[in-house]
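Please predict the structure of the following assembly.
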Amino acid sequence: MNLAADLSRDELLEKLRAQAAAPTGSRVQQHFPVPAPLAGLLPGGGLKSGSAYCLDVAGALLLSLLAEPSQAGHWCGVVGCLDFGAEAAELAGVNLDRLVLVPEPGEQWLAVVAALAEVVPVLAVHPPTRVREADASRLAARMRDRGGTLLVVGEWPRAEARLVVSEPKWQGLGIGHGCLSAREVRVSVTARSLPGQRSVRLLLPGSDGRLGESIQTVVPRLRVAG
Amino acid sequence: MVLANQVVACSAAAVAEGVRVGQRRREAQSRCPKLKVLLADDARDSREFEPVVECVEQLSPGVQLIRPGLCVVRARGLASYLGNEELAAETLLETVIAELGITSGRAGVADGVFAAVQAARQGDPVQVVAAGAASDFLAPLPISRLGDPGLAGLLPRLGVCTLGDFAALATADVRDRFGVQGVRLQALAAGKDSRQISPRVPPPELTRRLEFEPVLTLVDQVAFASRAEVERFIASLTVAGLVCTEVRLEFTGERDEFCSRVWLSPATFDAASVLDRIRWQLQAAAGKQLTSGVVSLEIEPIAVAELANHVPGLFGLGPDEKVHHAMSRVQAMLGHLGVVTPRIGGGRWLAERQVLVAWGDRSVSGLPTDRPWPGRVPGPQPSTVFAESLPVQLVNANGLPVVVNPRGQLSDSPTGLQIDGRIRTLIGWAGPWPVAERGWDQDRKKVANRCQVVDGTGVAWLLFANAQGWWAEARYD
């Protein structure tokens, strides 16, 4: 009460904001790098350690998110993806020497994720069952403590951001001729801490298997009506 | 057995058909069309011969292994015990044959190793050359018995065809022409073998066996009871200057049940990690392989390495050890194949190109990656590769199935892809591209035609058609 009495309302608010923004745990908040075209979409410009991100499918987008941290020497884990395409992962830039797969965790997937979260900083999970709120928050606490990032294929409570791949357009394949060479998609991100939806058109995968250059970024703006 | 296209060893039955050591493979096969040709493999031979050496060692210590299939032992001890040399050789041979159940063997007794080996070759099954008679015994044998291809080729052309002829030459002349090696070989031919038997040191017994009395029924009890023995096991390895990287644990249950497993470690095993594995193996086996109490435990080191190569770094454990520990925990939950690391191999099929190696196992070499593999999928690779291909159906506008005709073309333009009973409209397709491999091998040959299709939702599929129909090999998503 004393504190509140000494400070004006604005000063108090300012202080609280600063406290909320400051790192809470003993570990410094760090960001795992993501490919440049995606960096502009995600809050903080990368995958925030201690948070979870939702993806709609386990495909090329997941691989391109794993690529940069794995190149930086971090271990990556993929839990619950039975049909993982390792060759696509390598082409996308994932270092296979730093990748572990748990293809069929079954009922124990949450325990497996919890065990791997201790040592694997970037963990992709395809949960076979719906996660309970309590389990998710317990896991989130562990991720925050260890400074890891969870990439979830499917739904996850209190995810930092949701990445959706839409409007896929394959290039190179015609009616009866050609072969698949690249795919143009729109990747949209809905983040908890940023208003609106940001999206970008990308080549995912490009002709070399990696994420290709962005073509244009669309950020919705508020317009004055009337 | 064949090395570099030449016969290096053959059975008695093959000899009867006219196969000889040194023949070319084709020649041997023409003599005996039913000849079974194996590649020469020293490691396999040594492995097979090891029990024989051990069995001989039981009867008479001081065995020297010359090469797999041939060992020498001092005759004096056994001969003086049994009375004479012939009886000693017969007893040795009979015991080995009876104990190991091998079909035949030969033995020879003579002064010196070389003469004894030649006697064993003549033996039927036992040949004893009396003391001092070695040079007479060797004299009629051909020069090739010396095992020196240079001399065996040259001397007969100079008119020296037998060991006796060679021994009769003046030593000074032999030294002038063939050097020190020639003089040594001449001494052998004359029956004067100066070599001593240098007996092998039997490898230390590292395997540990532990009996539980009374029978233990709780995992923790077993782990606790084996702690001291495991520590002794690790200590005995350390004394031998070794560390263990692969260990086999075998439990025996009360109802004659066995539960055996090989554990590998990318690092090395210490007492605590062996105890962990004892616990994990029992937890995994409880109620399945083992339904009764544990009677005994055997700890056998499968692979050992020099201790000096595995000294931990000055600054303690690296982060990779922590990773290994966590992975091992997950493996303990899900089983050995629960945690895998992918490796890229060669091949034409996507599933065979990605080799999944269980955590801690050494990577198995798949097909070589440096070959061109014509027929493999070009361009960006699919991010979903089905472990088991999905049965699908390609249909045309009328809903009729599309097939690949014998000319390697699609019978009609496909417009729909049926997966799990649902038909997806196709907006693009290409193919078929033939993939044919191992046409010479009836069992493993694969002939198929690949197609890439894109359905209306923008998902691309990699399909292939074989004799059984259409299959989805992978999905691009």
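The longest helix of chain A spans residues 133-146. Residues 59 and 84 of chain A are 9 Å apart (CA to CA).
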